[in-house]
Design goal:
- The protein is mainly beta.
- The protein is 10% helix and 44% strand.
- A four-stranded antiparallel sheet has the order 2-1-5-6.
- It is globular.
């Protein structure tokens, strides 16, 4: 779900009050509460890291990849979030603007990696 904070980030960039819209961080957590438009953080953040890549996917499309290595985020994952903006920091949980949050239930072990692939699409109505 795209959050109100994510929508307001775009609005405020158009007004000139936000200058950093870059998607920077993927974070996972253990809270399975359904996403809501008003979310500004994950329910219970357990791991965050820089996105692996952000590439041009064509007109209005950004392809996003994030990989959790085998030794990262071992345990129950229930939620995933994408954070953007100047304040988004790897070592600071819940920092930055939570642009999107979704549920993803997985008991991750230390012998597997997980790759998340997504697209941010801006299209005509």
């Amino acid at each position: 779900m795209i959050t109100n904070a994510g929508l307001n980030m775009i609005k405020n960039a158009k007004r000139g009050t936000v200058t950093d819209l870059e998607y920077k961080i993927i974070a996972v957590g253990s809270d399975n509460t359904p996403p809501a438009a008003g979310d500004v953080a994950l329910g219970t953040e357990t791991k965050r890291k820089l996105l692996t890549s952000k590439t041009d996917g064509g007109n209005g499309i950004v392809d996003i990849v994030a990989i959790l290595q085998a030794d990262e985020a071992v345990g129950q994952i229930e939620e995933v979030g994408i954070f953007a903006g100047a304040a988004a920091a790897v070592l600071t949980p819940d920092s930055g603007i939570l642009v999107a949050r979704f549920l993803y239930s997985k008991l991750k072990t230390n012998v597997e990696s997980i790759q998340f692939n997504g697209q941010d699409i801006v299209a005509e109505a």
